[in-house]
Amino acid sequence: MKTLLAASIIAISILLSGCGTGGSEVQFSNGDVTLSGTLLLPKTEGPVPAVVLIHGSGETDRGGLEYYAKIFVRNGYAALIYDKRGVGKSGGGPDAWRYFSFDDLAGDAAAGVEYLAGRDDIDGDRIGLFGASQGGWVAPLAATKSNQVSFMVLLSASVSSVAEDRLFERAARLKTEGFTESEIHEVTEMQLVDQELTRSGEGFDDFASLWDEHKEKRWFRRVYLGEEPTPADDEWRLWYRTILDFDSVPLLEQLSIPTLCLFGDPAHDRYGPVQASADQVEALKQSGKDYEVEVYYGADHNLKMVDGGKEAPFKERMDTWLTTMPR
């Protein structure tokens, strides 16, 4: 088993009473950060396959993943859900979820994998990762940190860099709000200068000039909320520089494990570049990777149908796909 560079694996399992998940309270550690979560077990004889579920963005705890965890449980998989670092019962400091690093988040997930692999009731050769939205960036990186990962399921994951994703999201949102293509072009051009300022720490005068040029335009306050342009040495920029060019594509090129990628409709998911992401995964599949892509037309980022609010049949697709995993 490959040694996790940043993770010392400490695990404590205690029967959880009165928890809505009906699982067992567990703890595991990535370096000096202890993650607290819940392990849900299927009603089958062990050792059983398992999955670690990874959060989307924001201040999210284990409860936000329980819905997806139960899909795996009913398919005979154990499912580990946990509070993101800095949230709930997990350590890491109150701002850890906000000023995160992908390496830390991936290390947390990989530590969960190693914890599961050490349990007698888990089949260490059949442990996977599930990542939704931001978790779709974290999961491939986590898979490179442990050779115990045997499959992945990615839901509404941007197969792109963070920078590309942010440009798409801003343009897509403004389009839905009725701004013109010309206005969106202005926003994109300013965002590119903004990103380069973050990336290199240079070009503040150019950014400030665009700020003065555009600050009275109707789109400006839909993009920038501050009263002054953010300087290059601002704490937020210095943090954002560390994640701006993070890109999942090289990681997916590196990995060779079965992966299912589920997307909403490119016309309705404004949070990520669905078409480009699906095309990228399809290209990797054509290169020989064991990757599958499913796009649910008419569905949004949460795979809910825009017309009527019903859920796209992604659970059925997961059920079918999971039956192809080695038993």
| CATH 4th-level superfamily of the largest domain | Alpha/Beta hydrolase fold, catalytic domain
**What is the third-level CATH name, the topology of the largest domain?**
Rossmann fold
The class by helix and strand makeup works out as alpha/beta
Radius of gyration: 21 Å
Do you know the CATH architecture of the largest domain? 3-Layer(aba) Sandwich
Largest sheet: 9 strands, mixed
Q: Please tally the β strands and state the result.
A: 9
**Cα distance spanning the termini:** 21 Å
Instruction: Give the total of domains.
Output: 2
% residues in beta strands:
15-25%
CATH class of the largest domain: Alpha Beta
Quick tags:
disordered N terminus, globular, Rossmann fold, 10 helices, 9 strands, alpha/beta, 327 residues, nine-stranded mixed sheet
Explain what this protein looks like in three dimensions.
This protein is α/β, with parallel strands linked by helices. It folds into 2 domains: 12-160 and 246-322, Rossmann fold, CATH 3.40.50.1820; 162-240, no CATH class. The protein is 35% helix and 18% strand. The protein has 10 helices and 9 strands. The chain has helices spanning 66-74, 102-117, 135-144, 162-176, 181-200, 204-214, 235-240, 249-254, 274-286, 314-322; strands at 12-15, 24-30, 33-40, 48-54, 78-82, 122-132, 149-155, 259-263, 291-295. The chain has a 9-stranded mixed beta sheet with strand order 1-2-3-5-4-6-7-8-9, with helices on both faces. Helix 4 packs antiparallel against helix 5 (181-200) and helix 5 packs antiparallel against helix 6. The longest helix has 20 residues, at 181-200. The chain is globular.
